[in-house]
Amino acid sequence: MKFTLNVDHVATLRNARGETQPDPVTAALIAEQAGVDGIVVHLREDKRHINERDVRLLRELITTKFDLEMAATEEIIRIACDVQPELATIVPEKRQELTTEGGINVIDNIQLLNEAIGDLHKNGIEVSLFIEPEIDQIDASVEIAADYIEIHTGVFANCTIEEEQFDELEKIRIAAKHAKKLGLGVNAGHGLNYTNMKIFRELSDIDEVSIGHAVLARAFFVGFDRAVRDMISIIKGTF
Ligand code: PXP
Questions:
Q1: Contact, 168 vs 156, CB < 8 A?
Q2: Taking the domains of the chain in order of start, what are their residue ranges?
């Protein structure tokens, strides 16, 4: 299982003062030195944390995989096609939300997503769709030639009752297996942390986990490099 680090909230902190520090690009480079497999940022339409400058500098400087999270809007697709990340992960986006609240409904948005995937593919960019762990959403993703899905793990992560968490994990396990059988790459993310990853890491059909908030929260207390390395150890099963 690979680990891609989301550095959006380094930019949130920077923007809180309207200054230049801390810089998400510096964070990405330090994380690469610590051993992450890729860097994720979400270029939101309102640019509330990551901005175009960050995306362009990241493209120039990082040497691991660049996963650009984005809504399927004309403006952001144009920027993605120009920047050329290795992967574009399409997420639903609501202006009022604090963070992405759930997967995109592929079935209800099939034409829009089909066109977005076509544009991104024409520019050599692989596409992942952030979806709920549901079979019909996976089948629809295959229909429009997505390369990956990213399974929304928020419900699993928020479970406080052990049996419910186990049921959610089973749902994700079945969805991941189905997606793999159909030839999709399978990523997962949202709400994964140093505790629930000790259960989640057992899922053999997950290629990559995308984690942000938990690592940055820990970084405040133990330092950024150490927080990244601790998560790497957990994912590898050595911690
Ligand atoms: N994957 C997607 C699609 C997301 O939108 C986010 C949050 O930005 C994450 C993963 C990472 O979630 P978290 O910050 O809770 O680890």
A1: yes
A2: 2-236
**Of 210, 216, 228, 234, which is best to mutate to test ligand 1, by the most ligand atoms within 8 angstroms of its C-beta?**
210
Cβ-based neighbour number of residue 229 at 10 Å: 17
Q: Class for domain 2-236, per CATH?
A: alpha beta
pLDDT value, residue 149: 98
Which atom belonging to ligand 1 lies closest to the Cα atom of 191?
15
Atom 9 in ligand 1: residue holding the nearest Cα: 190
Per-residue pLDDT reduced to its tens digit, 19-60: 999 999 999 999 999 999 999 999 999 888 999 999 999 999
Q: Active-site positions?
A: 42, 69, 190
Q: Tens digit of pLDDT for each residue in 90-129? A: 999 876 677 677 899 999 999 999 999 999 999 999 999 9
CA 29, 31, 32, 34 torsion-angle sign:
positive
Q: H/E element holding 141?
A: helix 135-143
